[in-house]
């Protein structure tokens, strides 16, 4: 898979993530949990932003970002604008890193092991893209459960590729 293909999908999904967060009608709604669902939309959005900034920005791009996974899952009550700003930082890290990364690096081992395995960079980026889209769908569903009249985010639109 070409890095520009993965970049296009992940840029689309991070932009959709920012739209999803913005469509929650209130800051409180972003952090509401539903029965049987452990994570709020805000928690998942922070997790995705941290994941991209860590694995792509810091590990691949050397950005110096230091991940705080506990804060991703432990923060509550942040303003939607604050969460969107974090998503925009992730988008910037993604674009800067993949723009500068030589295509040949896709065939090289990813710099760190995951789950006891050292994946090829292209496979790790594919995993990160699928992980992003998976949680984006959860956020879309959560937002529509919390606020049924909150509109349509247009997530995962082929027209944005």
What does this protein structure show overall?
By secondary structure, this protein is an all-alpha fold. It has one domain: dinb family like domain (Four Helix Bundle (Hemerythrin (Met), subunit A)), CATH 1.20.120.450. It contains 6 helices and no strands. 35% of the residues are buried.
In a few lines, what is going on in this structure?
The chain has 161 residues and is mainly α. It has one domain (3-160): dinb family like domain (Four Helix Bundle (Hemerythrin (Met), subunit A), Up-down Bundle). Helices cover 61% and strands 0% of the residues.
CATH architecture: Up-down Bundle
How widely separated are the two ends? 15 Å
Overall body shape? globular
Calculate the mean pLDDT score and round it. Answer: 96
Report the β-strand fraction as a percent range. under 5%
Instruction: Specify the number of helices.
Output: 6
Q: Give the total of domains.
A: 1
**CATH-assigned fold name:** Four Helix Bundle (Hemerythrin (Met), subunit A)
Global Rg: 16 Å
Detail the poorly predicted runs.
none
Oligomer: single chain
The top-level CATH class is Mainly Alpha
Return the string of H and E elements: HHHHHH
Helix content: 55-70%
Would you identify the CATH H-level superfamily?
A: dinb family like domain
